[in-house]
């Protein structure tokens, strides 16, 4: 894979993605010239997991008018205002407190961001996100929020599953969304990364988030 170029990788991936699915290119740690190359290839949705890194990139790419930025990492409450100014999509809403903060800030903003709730389909103390029982418990409070648009669910799978287990687990996300739909108008399922996106697509993903599969390995931290 490392010898392939970005256009080649992209072509191979696009051949596997049904057209209504949105490909979010994860540009964390990707240099600006490479992001420009992705843009020149027609990509417009870029995902970042840190507000500050995204702000720097958005500024460097300000001449490209139609980029859509997606926040895919944990959002701290003191960065919430800056996040709303940059990201039309926030995939990583992982607590009632941050959802309420975004709701409160949105009262003063013209364009409400579209929010996805990050769900842990299996309990994992190392990860951010709602467990399924936590999400059910928060539902009355979430459905009362007036100024945010909660439109979907996002998940990251635990490591070490077989392809069959991944697809099975991914399919729990749209099923959960269907259960919650009387309370929230959920229609987006953000699931699937470079190693597991085929299983996510088979399970009903509407957005996949690919980094290494497009841009190659990231440098080690
Ligand atoms: C880094 C990241 C991705 C992309 O992961 P790859 O394995 O590089 O495709 C997707 N989603 C989230 C939340 C990430 O942090």
Automatic annotation (TrEMBL):
<dbReference type="Pfam" id="PF01168">
    <property type="entry name" value="Ala_racemase_N"/>
</dbReference>
<dbReference type="InterPro" id="IPR001608">
    <property type="entry name" value="Ala_racemase_N"/>
</dbReference>
<feature type="domain" description="Alanine racemase N-terminal">
    <location>
        <begin position="4"/>
        <end position="219"/>
    </location>
</feature>
<dbReference type="InterPro" id="IPR011078">
    <property type="entry name" value="PyrdxlP_homeostasis"/>
</dbReference>
<comment type="similarity">
    <text>Belongs to the pyridoxal phosphate-binding protein YggS/PROSC family.</text>
</comment>
<protein>
    <recommendedName>
        <fullName>Pyridoxal phosphate homeostasis protein</fullName>
    </recommendedName>
</protein>
<feature type="modified residue" description="N6-(pyridoxal phosphate)lysine">
    <location>
        <position position="28"/>
    </location>
</feature>
<dbReference type="InterPro" id="IPR029066">
    <property type="entry name" value="PLP-binding_barrel"/>
</dbReference>
<comment type="function">
    <text>Pyridoxal 5'-phosphate (PLP)-binding protein, which is involved in PLP homeostasis.</text>
</comment>
<keyword id="KW-0663">Pyridoxal phosphate</keyword>
<dbReference type="GO" id="GO:0030170">
    <property type="term" value="F:pyridoxal phosphate binding"/>
</dbReference>
């Amino acid at each position: 894979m490392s010898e392939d170029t970005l256009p080649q990788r992209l072509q191979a991936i696009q051949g596997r993605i049904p057209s209504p699915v949105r490909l979010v290119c994860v540009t964390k740690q990707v240099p600006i010239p490479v992001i420009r190359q992705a843009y020149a290839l027609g990509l417009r949705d870029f995902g970042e997991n840190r507000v500050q890194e995204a702000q720097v990139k958005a500024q460097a790419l300000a001449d490209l008018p139609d980029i859509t930025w997606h926040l895919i990492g944990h959002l701290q409450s003191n960065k919430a205002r800056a996040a709303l100014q940059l990201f039309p999509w926030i995939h990583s809403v992982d607590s009632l407190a941050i959802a309420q903060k975004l709701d409160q800030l949105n009262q003063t903003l013209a364009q409400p961001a579209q929010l996805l709730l990050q769900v842990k389909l299996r309990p994992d103390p190392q990860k951010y996100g709602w467990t399924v029982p936590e999400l059910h418990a928060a539902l009355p409070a979430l459905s009362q929020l007036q100024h945010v648009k909660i439109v979907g669910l996002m998940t990251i799978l635990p490591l070490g599953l077989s392809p069959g287990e991944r697809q099975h687990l991914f399919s729990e996300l749209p099923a959960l969304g269907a259960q919650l739909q009387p309370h929230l108008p959920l229609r987006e399922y953000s699931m699937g990364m470079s190693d597991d996106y085929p299983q996510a697509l088979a399970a009903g993903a509407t957005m996949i988030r690919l980094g290494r599969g497009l841009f190659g390995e990231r440098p080690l931290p």
